[in-house]
Each structure stands twice: as structure tokens, then as C-alpha cells.
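Consider the following input, taken from an annotated entry for Translocase of outer membrane 40 kDa subunit (Naematelia encephala).
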Amino acid sequence: MSTFNEKASAPTAFAPYLDAVTNLFHPVSGPVLNTYARFHGWKESMGLVQPGTVENVSKEVSNVHLANWFFDGARADVAKVVSANPAFQLTHSFALGSSSKPSSYNFGAIFANATTFLQGGVDGEGVVTMRANQTWSPSNITKVQGQLYNKPGQSMLQIEHDYLGPHHSFSLKTMNPGVLDGTGIHFVSALQSLSPRLSVGFETIVQRPQPGILETSTSYLAKLTSLPTLASSAAAALTPLGQPPVAQPFNPSWIATAQLQPSGNIQTTYFQKLSDKVDVALDLQTVIQPASMMGPAKREAITTLGAKYDFRMATFRGQIDSNGKVGMLLEQRFTPAFAFMVSGEIDHAKNASRFGVGIMIESSTMTQEEMIAAGMLQPV
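Applying the prediction step yields:
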């Protein structure tokens, strides 16, 4: 047995040549590798965190403010859970009497497991929408969105890929890409953590509506957060030795961001978690527009302050801006399968108002024991 191992580990005929090549490049590669190892060790000793992506740099503020949640008129969302693992759900959405858009109906389906998320829908006018997210690894995620209209020139396809490193992120996104002529709108963004609290990045937009037209613009941003919690530091320390560190989630108690746009406008946001159930968010946007054929010069700023309260069976969002607009949204869940929503907005400057009511109903083909095992219901 030992004779076989000795023969298996005996040097091959190419070993002298490989050693000669290694010795030839060692005077150049050795210092480079040593410098990189020292730089990597210095970077790890700084306690850097995963900063997230540029697209989600103000995600916490968007979760508090009403821009993505407000509705007017009447709406009803009916969902039927067919399976919990993998998740499969059918949805019916109705919207009636809205001042922002006419009455509509949408049928959708959602499928999700640990690595794949699929969502599709079709409305009463025949418009088909789809969305797909594929997680290849904890650091690589590909996203695809598409809309198919029954009118020519209105369909849309968007492809995006996010890479999340231990201390940085890099994203590529393209909208309606032209394979042959390179037309479309392309986005390149990156965010790098410089310290446990400070991250900086950029986003470049390349627009090519026609083969002979090319426009580029770049915006710069910075993100300042509270210090990482002990839980985040402990999770990062559990990475096995000899393996690249995995991006760990980081939930700071407060976040401040600033973005300088190509037009010279500045957008700043601030998010503060006051408690486990109360969040507040502030958004400031400047509008600097020089005089042109489109109109006179404009210099103004808009500030929006919002708060979100999470109760045991309800969520309340309220906000007010510097233009005198006040809004609110209440989502009251009476049972795990039924919720009632009411929203309202008053614009004092324009002497206008909007109001909306809605319900959400969720049913399931699963038994009570299966829903408790899936975490959908609390055991009695």
C-alpha cells in the first residue's frame, strides 16, 4: 500500500519545467501577492460591512413614505395560497373609481422557493407583466422584468444583475437592449464601504435611443449609518477560516444618504428607528432648473417627513411635506386572512384631496395544521 502511495506522489516529468516557470515569475508575482495579502488584511481589520446596492440605498425611507403605498378610489385584493413550500399563490386585484387611473382588473400568480422567485400577471386590457429573480449564490442575483403591451412600441424588457461582495456591491442593468445596434438604456452602479459607517458610490446612465445618439450622465452618492451592532459583528466572525467572507445583513438604527445628480440637484434622506415599532424618515430634494425654451428658471426644495407605526394587528403611515400636502394610510388586519385599508391625502396648496378604501382577503387550500407548520398561523 505504501509503495502505491509513493508511486502516486512521485514527481512527473513536467515538474522541473513547472518549477522553472514558477521561479522565473516569482520575483514579480511574489511582491504583488504579498502586497495584496497585506491590503486585504488591513481592509478586514477595519470592520467594513456590506453596504447594499445603489438602487436600495434609500429603501428604508421608501418603506416609511407613502409613494409606494398610497392609493385612491376602491381596491380589493384576493389571494389564494395553493402551496407554502414551494410558495405558490394566485391573486385577483380589482381597482374602481380611482382619479389617477381607470378601473382595472389584474390576475397574477407567484411562485417562490429558496433561490427562485417568479411573478406574472395579465390585466383586463391584455397587458402581460412578468418578473423573475434568480439567486445563483449569496453574492450573485439576476433579475428580469418585462411588460408586453398590445400597442407597438410600448413593450419593455429589463435585465439586471447584482453582485454583493463582503464590503462592496456592483450592479449592471439594461432596459430594452438592442442586441445588434446597442440601443437602449444601460445602468452601471457600484457602492463601496470605506468604514463601518461610511459608504460611497456612483451610478452611470448610458442612453442610446438611436445608433447615432449617445448620452451619458453620472450621479454620486454617500451613505452614513450608525455603527454595526454586536449581532452583525458576531455573524461576520463566524465565517470559516480559509473561505471568502459572506456578505452579512446589517440593519442600522439610523441611515443618512446624499446624492448629487447630473443636473446639479441634490437629494438627501434620513431614516431613524425610534423603537421596534416606530420608524421616521425625512427626504429633501432640490429642484434647480435653468431658464430655457421649456420655461423660466426654477430654484426650489421639497421636504417630506413621514412616520410608520407597527401595532399588533395594524400598520399606520403618515407624512407631511413642505408644500402643505398631508397623507395617511392605515392597514388594519382583523384576522390573518382579512385586512382593511383606508388612505387619504389633502393638498392644501391646490385645495384638492384624495381618498381610498380597500380590502385584502387571503384563502388557502391547506389545512390548519399545514398552515401552522408553515408559519402562516399561530398555534392555538
